[in-house]
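In this supplementary section we document a worked example of the pipeline. Step one takes a protein sequence of length 359 as its only input; no multiple sequence alignment statistics are reported here. Step two produces a three-dimensional model, which step three serialises into structure tokens for compact storage. The input and output of this example are shown verbatim.
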Amino acid sequence: MDHLPRIKPRVAVLSVVPSPYQRDLFQALAQRDEVDLHVFYLEASAPDSPWPEKPLAAYESILPGRWYAVGSARCHCNWPLPPLRHYDLVVLNTLMSFTAQWVMRVLMRGRRWAFWGERLQGTSRLHQLFTAPLNRATGIVAIGSRALGEYAERFPRPLHFDIPYHCDLQPFLDTPRPALENRPVRFLFCGQMIARKGLDHLLQAFMQIRNAELHLVGREAELPEMLATLPAEVRSRIVYHGFHDPARLCEFFGMADVFILPSRYDGWGVVVNQALGAGMPVICSDAVGAGLDLVEPGVNGFRFLTGSVPELAAAMQRFVAEPALIGRFGEVSRQRALDWLPERGAERWIAAINTMLRS
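The serialised model returned by step three reads:
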């Protein structure tokens, strides 16, 4: 019996769309000998996330179906579904869809399944209805320690794990840091130019900073309206680089000094991972999930009270007044980035999968 080949557990993941920050982790997990991974996406692309389409791997596939508008949400209905009952564990990265509800309430009843997600938002009756099946999950895999605490308090019965996004940081790790001599400090924001990301707060704070530049990368969205209210002198120190393929982001992280993510809400914020890989100090609001796990105040960056323009401006001014902090904090960030590579995330997933299969 000891010489029989070990049978790999079959694990299926249902996610919404092939996103770069998830696919890096899926690839690392698929390469592990301990698991037979299959990833199913509810759709090929999302209109609000214009990532360039890349060929699917052998373990990935797009499910047939369509989505329906339910308020501001997009609820997917996919049919036919793969034979999920034949898998040892099914992991869902979506709740707010007809497909996910059918899988949780019907197909996986009495079987092992888990939910992997960011912090839950909302307290409406509809929200409570959609999240009710989590009480019966084998496990809940939270994206970040803050989400972990909230899930454990609200749904105490399942097993709980903390596995945030782990993306390919090698291009950022390979990017040299720019010299900071006889030039203004360069702050960088990367994301959609929308109020939820706190860009309006960042622009208000930047108005108070001198001897600095602000570089913006991402979808233009509400940026023109926000810039229109700024004095010409402030606008002259702001550079908008547009939206770019994720493969090119390391170029912009490599030319800036300090990364800022001032979101009103961000379940995680994978750009913080990338900033660590690029060896950058990070300033973020306390509403950024990644900030709690990746940013240690006074060591590799600062966290400020969400919406507090004075606190944000004060954090930015620290780097202008003490440029030596940029290199010192950046070295800590780059060292800590090594713990957030996809291979480390795959290790955490293997441990969680084994625990759930033994339950």
